[in-house]
Amino acid sequence: MVIVLCCVxxxxxxxxxxxxxxxxxxxxxxxxxxxxxxxxxFGVYVEYASYLYVRNFTKExxxxxxxxxxxxxxxxxxxxxxxxxxxxxxxESIAKIERAVKEVRxxxxxxxxxxxxxxxxxxxxxxxxxxxxxxxxxxxxxEEMRMVIANYAPDYxxxxxxxxxxxxxxxxxxxxxxEWVTFAEELASEVTTLSPNTIVVTLTALQIDEPRIENRAYxxxxxxxxxxxxxxxxxxxSLYELETFTAIHALPDTNSLKELWIGETWDNWKIEYRGExxxxxxxxxxxxxxxxxxxxxxxxxxGWGLHDSELKPNGAYFSYRAVIDEVRSAAD
Length: 332
Prior knowledge:
The chain is α/β, with parallel strands linked by helices. It has helices at residues 19-31, 59-70, 84-87, 91-106, 134-152, 165-168, 177-194, 214-224, 239-250, 276-291, 315-331; strands spanning 41-45, 76-81, 110-115, 156-158, 199-205, 231-235, 259-262, 296-299.
């Protein structure tokens, strides 16, 4: 998940879905309403089976969340995996992840796994360095990738998500952008060799005001490079990021043969449900992705974005389901 600390008042960086922010989002929807809809893959992140959060939920709760999301009509279920479970021999958490994978396969849906490394290696904050050496981190990442391919054969595998900035948080020394690009290309080549049918994805964070500009350089080099990465995802967490960064940095590169996706998104970096504003944001983001020619859209609702603690769906859930139905009906 990307953490963005930019506040644009009209986009509502507070918890209040005030009338001004709602009106702006409605206008955004009108501006980017596609004249025609194109086929698009839709996905959703499953919090109950991801990161270290999986330790907090039972297999039954995980299955119920997946079943709830299946009724959205999504094509893809995304699980974000930490390697900590395997390094520490946490069989209980591994069994829960395997149950989630089994459920996704039983439903006949596509499986997306993002490999997020070792949480125990993370620095104290996002902008701090981590605990692993570069060689140690690369070795661990290769191991995690090979384990995921061997055990789960995902339809989509996201490598180096939100590199360099997020991955740098696990490494103790600063790594040049070119080295991240080289390693991503090496991993992608190995994935393609081990599992030719797996679609290789990389994600990039969209912090406009972040002092680190290497995310943008990484995006461009991956997008335009001759490598085995199939999908480049951008991860906006506001209309401001969605529109401004994508227009400036992503769209000029659409002559690339790679697909451009919304790799993850929500209307605020805290992943809070903010009523009508969250409901409208989902439609606005899908319309924008459609209007600029993106190929896929994955929603990142965190733990409570689409439902409450009892797994009761909220307005954002029904908003996502409605816009998926709208796109599919019009694109057929």
